[in-house]
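To: structure desk
From: M.T.
Subject: fold request, one chain
Message: Could you run this one when you get a chance? Sequence is below, nothing fancy, just the single chain.
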Amino acid sequence: MRLLTPRLILREFRDADFGSFRELEARPETYHYETVSPSDEGTREYLQKAQQDALQSPRTRYRLAVTIQPCDDVRGRATLLLLNDSIREWEIGWAIHPQDWGKGIATEAAQRLLEFAFVELHAHRVVAFSHAGNTASLRIMRKLGMQQDGLLRETRLWKGQWSDEVVYSILDHEWNTSHTKDQ
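Reply: Done. Structure tokens follow.
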């Protein structure tokens, strides 16, 4: 599977991606609001699971490498996970290499993944979760047209303390309306 944007390719992970993907995963900034960075073995396991996901049918998880054209090195990851099939609800997520922050890469990748979710997967609702202090991620969610659904109090153990999590969502008819305006 390959999803294209003017600057990006979102594609399946390959074994050859280990080096560039490991460089992203090993960066402390990548996991600043999350758990600790995974080990080399944890990164290998992620790549293996991503490749196994690609073989599933029907597919309920997409873990895609984000590359910036014309290079094929992994500069990020973007994910879609089926949360609730009965209401066609998917969760979206992303992580971009810190050297590429502030360039609109995460927004562009997430916009393309939303399009895939609504057009190809017929999602009704796409949600995203973020540490309440991750203002960059919250800003991306708003740029995507997502609305805040709520604040989940003390759901994340972060740096030894409980912290809040924010949930945002966008519905199919909201995405259709905003997408039609852009055309």
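Reply (cont.): The beta strands are 2-4, 8-12, 61-68, 74-84, 89-96, 125-131, 147-158, 161-171. Let me know if you need anything else for the meeting.
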